[in-house]
Amino acid sequence: MSKQQTATAVVFDPHPDDADWWTGGLAMLLAKAHWQVHFVCVGLTEDKTRKEALESAAILGIRRKFLEIRVTNNEHFAGDLADAVRPLLRELAPTAVFIPSLTDYHLEHVTLSRQLLRCFHWSSDAGLEDFEVYAYDSHVNRELIEIYVDISSVWDRHVDSLRCHRYFERPGLPDNALIRTKTGRAMMLGAELPTQPVLYAEGYRLLRGHLTGISSLPDVLAGKFYYRSDRELLAL
């Protein structure tokens, strides 16, 4: 396995704020551990939202890519996505890939994840190495959370990254709606760690794991990675 493969994570999102919202804490921890982290926005963006996403990326210490593919009402979406994702994965050679929840209420999130999983099935035929696949948390929290990541140590900076997405400051929404939502969910997940409750956590589900172990992340996130196995929560 090459050096790049041991130190690259790719997070796909349909909108330019999703990856930050659900994986910003983990992304920052991986970046601090000298991983290359790429947020890849698949869907259509605007100048304003791209600018905000790039501002957020600078705070997180990650890289941002924009594919500009219409996700819904696009009969060619599957082909467009495969044509864009195939060379991207070959170029980045990730160890871990993160996708939206398959049970999210948002159609574009589910559509993207389903098609990405289809893309991943041809990875070996395309000459790509195996990579781990995780689903990140959803708006309706229907997914069984298997992996908890303690993001308390980077929480303040993560809040700064969320402030970049000024779309959530529009009229009709409460002040700091994005931050309030993430704070509530992060505190709830942190409280679910019975052996050692933490202030703030992010949740993930493992869809395709490490070839010989649960995940490659415990070594990188020493003391911050928790895995739920057969109803028992293990600190790894």
Any overview of this molecule?
- The protein has a single domain (5-235), classed as LmbE-like (Rossmann fold), CATH 3.40.50.
- It is 37% helix and 19% strand.
- It contains seven helices and nine strands.
- A nine-stranded mixed beta sheet has the order 3-2-1-4-5-7-6-8-9.
- It is globular and about 50 Å long.
- The two termini are 23 Å apart.
- 42% of the residues are buried.
Largest sheet: 9 strands, mixed
* Sheet with most strands: strand arrangement: 3-2-1-4-5-7-6-8-9
Please name the fourth-level CATH homologous superfamily: LmbE-like
Taken together, the total number of domains comes to 1
Which structural class should the secondary elements be placed in?
alpha/beta
Q: What portion of residues belong to β-strands?
A: 15-25%
Poorly predicted spans: 1-5
CATH class: Alpha Beta
Mean pLDDT: 86
Question: Which labels suit this protein?
Answer:
236 residues, 7 helices, 9 strands, nine-stranded mixed β-sheet, Rossmann fold, alpha/beta
Topology (SSEs and partners):
Layout: E1 8-13, H1 18-32, E2 36-41, H2 47-60, E3 63-66, H3 77-92, E4 96-99, H4 107-121, E5 132-136, E6 147-150, H5 155-162, H6 177-191, E7 201-208, H7 217-220, E8 225-229, E9 232-235
